[in-house]
């Protein structure tokens, strides 16, 4: 019925990516656009390594754009 609750779990990831690609096909955005372009005025989205912007495709692929291993972190030290 209209009031039934349905567990949809991770299916929203697929729906969101499909909408993003449809908007790209319609010329309303590019998946390579920086996230900053669509953020609220005054909200600063951090850059990856102070250089590269987080892009829409990072959101669609659930990646941050950050390197997998951070240099200088505890994983980079010799034991």
From TrEMBL:
Q: Which domain of life is it from?
A: Bacteria
UniProt-listed Pfam families: Beta-lactamase (PF00144)
* Domain named Beta-lactamase-related: residues: 3-72
InterPro entries assigned: Beta-lactam-related (IPR001466), Beta-lactam/transpept-like (IPR012338), Diverse_Enzym_Activities (IPR050789)
Instruction: Say yes or no: keyword DNA repair present.
Output: no
Q: Which Gene3D superfamilies match?
A: DD-peptidase/beta-lactamase superfamily
Q: Where is the signal peptide?
A: none
Sample GO molecular function, one term: hydrolase activity
- Keywords for this entry? Hydrolase
Query: What protein am I looking at?
Result: Serine hydrolase
The species this protein was found in: Klebsiella aerogenes (Enterobacter aerogenes)
